[in-house]
Amino acid sequence: MPERLLSRVEECYQQAERFFKRDFARPEVSFKLRGQKAGVAHLTENKLRFNPQLYRENHEDFLRQTVAHEVAHLIAHQLFGLKIQPHGEEWQLIMRGVYELPPNRCHSYTVQRRTANRYIYRCSCPQGEFPFSAQRHALVSKGRRYFCRRCKVTLSYTGEQRVESPSG
């Protein structure tokens, strides 16, 4: 677990405590997030998850913006409860007022997408080809059935696989 990231989380909490003149419960912090999200705040569990790949590739902005963004979600939850919008005025107040940062909803980091295996299913329609993800293909092998919306026939696996590149 990178020490600078943990230090930044603590720094954000101390800023919020000075601003609101109250204590906040510290979260569990994990580095077990993959994919396109830079960070996730689990409100009811008081937990933060960060993407180690995006942290390595965008170190400075990640520490400044992403960590504050996620901590602001937990602070907003502790102050205002669950009924607020995730990026609503309460969260924006914390981003602007406490951290003096723009309340950006999304990051603009470059995300490397991986190639994906697709399992080809067909129905009785002339162009009825359906590329399934590995996860959906596994569900079929456990008994789940999928139907064509046009011809209403159960989709069946052709035995074919295709590798799709990140561009689609």
UniProtKB/TrEMBL annotation:
The keyword NAD does not apply. SMART domains: SprT. Its cofactor is Zn(2+). Its main location: cytoplasm. Keywords: Cytoplasm, Hydrolase, Metal-binding, Metalloprotease, Protease, Zinc. One of its GO terms (cellular component) is cytoplasm. Zn(2+) binds at H69, H73. NCBIfam families: PRK04860.1 (NF003421). Belongs to the SprT family. This is Protein SprT. It comes from Pseudomonas xionganensis. The lineage of its organism: Bacteria, Pseudomonadati, Pseudomonadota, Gammaproteobacteria, Pseudomonadales.
